[in-house]
């Protein structure tokens, strides 16, 4: 395993982060989840990402159980706040002071830890004043319940404003967690430059485009049984945008490119996002331990310039690059 600094901080995290969105408490049984976490630890992964909303808080509990007995100081545990949890009452979502202060306590209890290394705003709250949100995060840090603060799927302007306010309040905003892959590059033109300027780096989710970049989905063919595209618990809806024959045909052109550098297609996908020097880590999930070991094979890989160019040529016009997609996909009101 190799490690990178997260933003303009002294915190180092593993180049691959184990995430449990759509798996723990949902797709896989708890014993399988624990086996996958053990595989991650054995592979040298020290960073683990979750959120209170995953499986309506159950994913945090599963991760807490799976990490029980590990040396806490040797781990970096990340969680998030924003989306509705619990009975979904009027204050059970958003980034109000009330919801943040109550949510961090619940997350710590479920994760069985006194603090998280990184506490992230899962989306930007369009109705709560930014000052209220950032002051609450400052207090969470001062109380020792979180060591660092990050955001997820914020626009460049929101990151700039949030980082500036954090500095005024005496703490650092150090990370951004956006979707990023060979097929989804919307952060490159605005979010990444703004993040560099603010001392923020990326922890990217879906580097394999929800499994599409493994090449297992064939154009003109139904998706394999048991795959993400057949999972009605949430996976099927998130993968739809990539399931066109044009995109799947382009992805098949990546196979000889991966073979030319002795990587699997999933390893190529993870290695590709790690070529971006503003990316600190790529989040990978797993429903089987062998998936963890395969993805870790991307760590430390340096892709030649001709390989990167070949990837661009292979994917052509199916790549989404519009920076406006971050704002377009953001909640317009509190959920």
TrEMBL record:
Pfam assignment, any one: Aldo_ket_red
Superkingdom in the source lineage: Bacteria
Segments forming domain NADP-dependent oxidoreductase: 16-314
Keyword annotations of the record: NADP, Oxidoreductase
Keyword Cell membrane tagged: no
Presence of keyword Electron transport: no
InterPro entries: AKR, K_chnl_volt-dep_bsu_KCNAB-rel, NAD(P)_OxRdtase_dom_sf, NADP_OxRdtase_dom
Similarity remark: Belongs to the shaker potassium channel beta subunit family.
Protein name (database record): Aldo/keto reductase
Organism from which the protein derives: Nocardioides daphniae
């Amino acid at each position: 395993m190799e490690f990178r600094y997260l933003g303009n901080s002294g915190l180092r995290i593993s180049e691959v982060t184990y995430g449990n969105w759509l798996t723990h408490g949902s797709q896989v049984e708890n014993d399988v989840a624990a086996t996958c976490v053990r595989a991650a630890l054995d592979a040298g992964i020290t960073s683990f990402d979750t959120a209170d909303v995953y499986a309506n808080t159950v994913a945090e509990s599963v991760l807490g159980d799976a990490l029980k007995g590990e040396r806490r100081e040797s781990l970096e545990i990340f969680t998030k706040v924003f989306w509705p949890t619990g009975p979904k009452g009027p204050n059970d979502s958003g980034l109000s002071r009330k919801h943040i202060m109550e949510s961090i306590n619940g997350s710590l209890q479920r994760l069985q830890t006194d603090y998280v290394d990184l506490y992230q705003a899962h989306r930007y709250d369009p109705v709560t004043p930014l000052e209220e949100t950032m002051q609450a995060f400052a207090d969470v840090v001062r109380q020792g319940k979180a060591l660092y603060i990050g955001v997820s799927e914020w626009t460049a302007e929101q990151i700039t404003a949030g980082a500036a306010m954090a500095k005024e309040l005496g703490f650092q905003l150090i990370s951004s967690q956006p979707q990023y892959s060979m097929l989804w590059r919307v952060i490159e033109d605005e979010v990444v430059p703004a993040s560099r300027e603010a001392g923020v780096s990326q922890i990217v989710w879906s580097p394999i485009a929800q499994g599409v970049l493994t090449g297992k989905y064939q154009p003109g063919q139904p998706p394999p049984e048991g795959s993400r595209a057949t999972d009605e618990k949430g996976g099927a809806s998130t993968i739809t945008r990539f399931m066109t024959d044009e995109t799947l045909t382009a992805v098949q052109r990546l196979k000889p490119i991966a073979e030319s550098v002795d990587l699997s297609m999933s390893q190529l996908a993870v290695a590709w996002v790690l070529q971006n020097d503003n990316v600190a880590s790529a989040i990978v999930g797993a429903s089987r331990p062998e998936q963890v070991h395969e993805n870790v094979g991307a760590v430390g890989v340096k892709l030649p310039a001709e390989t990167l160019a070949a990837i661009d040529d292979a994917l052509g016009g199916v790549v989404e690059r519009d920076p406006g997609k971050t704002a377009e996909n953001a909640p317009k009101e509190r959920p």
